[in-house]
Amino acid sequence: MSSAILLPEGYKYITAPLVSLGWVLLWQGLLVGRARKRAGIAYPQLYAEQAECKANPVALQFNCTQRAHQNTLEITPIVILGTLIAGLKYPLLATALSSAFSVGRVIYTLGYKTGEPARRVPGVAISNGATTVLLLSATYTVCQLFQLL
């Protein structure tokens, strides 16, 4: 016996930005590995110490690169959840917002890894804006599904 799940029209589109997010995370991880090697920060040390950063700008760049990756990992479950749920009612909106998140994370990472944390702000604005609207859209979708609105 087989069973089928009927997905809303257009739901397939949300798969592309979700997979692209996986590529963004992989790319960030590779950047962290390179920055770790350049800075000479041995495993399992998660970050360079403050004294190391003051003495060596490359250590600060490692910390910033590591933090960009870590921050993306922290927010990714919310983006995935928001995309999957909002996509049930608004697949094109969810696709656009999830795509914007990934683009924002690339801009965020490129700015942050310079060692000047303020350069991450444009990417933060894009990715956090997309995340907020995704979560609001997912919440609205849940309310609609439970006929709360």
From TrEMBL:
GO molecular function, one term: glutathione peroxidase activity
Superkingdom, taxonomy of origin: Eukaryota
Membrane-spanning residues: 13-33
Keyword Transmembrane helix attached: yes
Location, primary (coarse class): membrane
GO cellular component term, pick one: nuclear envelope
One Pfam entry name: MAPEG
Keyword Transmembrane helix on entry: yes
Membrane topology of this protein: Multi-pass membrane protein
InterPro entries: MAPEG, MAPEG-like_dom_sf, Membr-assoc_MAPEG
Gene3D superfamilies on file: Membrane associated eicosanoid/glutathione metabolism-like domain
Keywords: Membrane, Transmembrane, Transmembrane helix
Subcellular location(s) of the protein: Membrane
Protein name in UniProt: Unplaced genomic scaffold scaffold_3, whole genome shotgun sequence
